[in-house]
Sequence to fold (446 residues):
Amino acid sequence: MNVAVIGAGWAGLSAAHTLKQAGCAVTVYESGHQPGGRARTVQSPNLSNPVDNGQHILLGAYTATLALMQSCGVDAAKHFHREPLYLGTPNNTFRLRLPRFPGGRAGMLFGLLDALGLSWQSKYHLARALYQLERTHWKISPDTPTLNQWLRNQKQTPAACKYFWHPLCLAALNTHPDEADAQIMANVLKDSLGNPDKGATDVLIANDLLASLWPTQVCRSLNLHLSTPIRRMTRSKDGFCLNDRYEHAAVILATPAHRAKKLLADLPKCNDGTALHTQLSAFEHRPIATLWIELTQPWESLPARPMLMLEDDPKRHAYGQWLFNHAHIKGSRNPHLLAMVTSDASALGSLPREKAVHYLLNQLANETDHACPMPTIRGHTLVIEKRATFAATPNLSRPANQTPWRGLWLAGDWTDTGYPAVLEGAVRSGLAAAKQLLAGQVQSRL
Ligand SMILES: Cc1cc2nc3c(=O)[nH]c(=O)nc-3n(C[C@H](O)[C@H](O)[C@H](O)COP(=O)(O)OP(=O)(O)OC[C@H]3O[C@@H](n4cnc5c(N)ncnc54)[C@H](O)[C@@H]3O)c2cc1C
Fold:
């Protein structure tokens, strides 16, 4: 079967790889000049080497992504720094480290017993809330749709919110806890903290550019058209016609939701199509900011952790939430790099760039003043991805992979994966769309 995949992000590429392996003739159309989508490479004149558009992390619970990489011949042990989850500030005002084994609730309890910066009351309520979640099969009552409503209901202390719930919510959902969907947060916790499998809560950080991992491998075997935006998709006798030029029997539309909405506009009208249009119109987006800092030498005197928690407080102009120190990423391509990350970065993004960088560097100096001073900065660049992810708010109705038009499937982190907008959701959606397409093909042959 001759299939088109529109969009070469992690969703589109995982679909294309699956279809190719099943023997389909696959053509991928990508509007950008490189594959990878929102996990792409940027080259700044201020830095000596290219960097990712944002510092990404993966979890041990990203089973679909890790299996896909393996099937592409990528050895995750070689390309990722992997360690048990460690949440800690540079000066140890807070520290929670999870053992690799046991996982699940027992691991979390060990972590809490050993945690610094939380009172026994905070630890008790936190453990109780997780226990409660497990007992209700990770289902949140509709009475407390947002994370902060649920946290209040669970009597979480300000310290537990500040150091545990809020940072995890911002990192995973890129949505402020006041408006974040508590159920999506619970889904993430279920697969990580609630998962007794060894290493499910591990953090994995690539030691090279994300695009150089499996996307590059996969693209070598695909018919990939870069810099080819699809502007029009119409029904044709045998399937779909793209840009009035390319004919395909089936299509997987793996662009972001707002682009998908535009492309569906020229297809024959139907009630279900109108409903899908309404779903696609409801997505709002939130930015993520990453300040990449290149030092003259690796900063080894900071605590030997690749990822440290910063104490953000926008009222004090402290916007940074996480600091990634590549000096402590095993096998790092560039150990001179630091990345300061701010999720749901609307406040930071509204500042003039110079001011934003000034505040971030000030915060970094304040929060690390106990350590040996930071080596000299050789250069820095602030990357703000305005539409980094959709806002994971309650009652957002996310579309399935299937569409009302026969032969057309949707893929993307915004489809109904149960996950927030993350790499694992993108991969799962791509795999699901490809499997449904293949299943439809088999059915029509019967
Ligand atoms: C700064 C940042 C940090 C992040 N951090 C993390 C993290 O730590 N962990 C994590 O798991 N996730 C993280 N994410 C989210 C993750 O990157 C996304 O969930 C994932 O990349 C989405 O993949 P996708 O394939 O669904 O969509 P995209 O990557 O958006 O892919 C869609 C593709 O379609 C192309 N396209 C659009 N329109 C057209 C058209 N008309 N014709 C042809 N092609 C088109 C686009 O160019 C793009 O390549 C982060 C995202 C950002 C931006």
Q: What stands out?
A: The longest helix spans residues 423-445. The longest strand covers residues 377-390. The chain has three domains: 2-39+210-283+397-445, 89-197, 285-390. The CA atoms of residues 98 and 111 lie 5 Å apart.
